[in-house]
Design brief:
Blueprint: H1 8-28, H2 37-51, H3 57-70, H4 77-87
Length: 116
Amino acid sequence: MATKVMNHAELAELAELAELAGLLQRDFGSNFEPKEAGRLKTRMLKTLLAALPEHNIEQINRAFDETTRTLRANVDWTRFLCVILGQLPGWWTKLTNKPGFNTSTKIGRASCRERV
């Protein structure tokens, strides 16, 4: 099996994800527990809004609600982030030069689902 070499942007994105997962673990416990979501929602939304400035509170709130409906068991914070980030809207950026892969493939935060 070939090992994928990540570029600087991908490594930075993973570092941001790990940093945010660590912050959530410190502030909210070792795992995301769906049964505690209602009690922790307001504080978690503030934390996520600060960490994801490209999104507004309505987007994060919708993604949080969908994530809590999706997750039925306790999960680590990295998995929680991959699910919630997958619920958030993304943006397409027109490339100047055609890359060596299918350009219909969306790249960005939601791609963390492929790495976990």
